[in-house]
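G., the chain you wanted modeled:
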Amino acid sequence: MHQLTWPILAATLLGLAACASTPRFDTARYDAKSNPAEVADNPEFYTDAAFLWGGVIVNSVNTQNGTQIEVLAYPLSSSQQPDTDRTPGGRFLITDERYLETLDYAPGRLLTVGGALTGTREGQIGDASYVYPVIRPDDLRLWPRDSQRDNPQFHIGIGAVFGR
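Predicted structure as tokens:
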């Protein structure tokens, strides 16, 4: 091989590695295998547990004590983004003591949360009673609106791109 080939190949591979999305949450801190439906069925089994969950925001509301977000849970991809092409795993509530802007945390947005289970709360989905696991967030990631498109997107080329 030509002497310049190795440095170019190494720089290209390093550049591609830098572009790869890496998980943000420390999975060693959280149970990422149990879903909200399992926890709601047996909350006493999960006392003092911390979870890594994600999904689609159903509703968010600001209260006197902070913000409450209702989420329809989906399994997480390797980048820890909710995978809405898979089967949902129940619903859960996030109760955050901070004020979060509900226009940002709007229905339909994707989010991932790592946090401690603080208990369960009874609620309603339509006319049906529902038991929600409640999470106090340690870390919360609201995914950009454009991240909900078909992922991953990988492009190699030289030239210009106009529009989308």
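Helices lie at 5-19, 36-41.

Shout if anything looks off.
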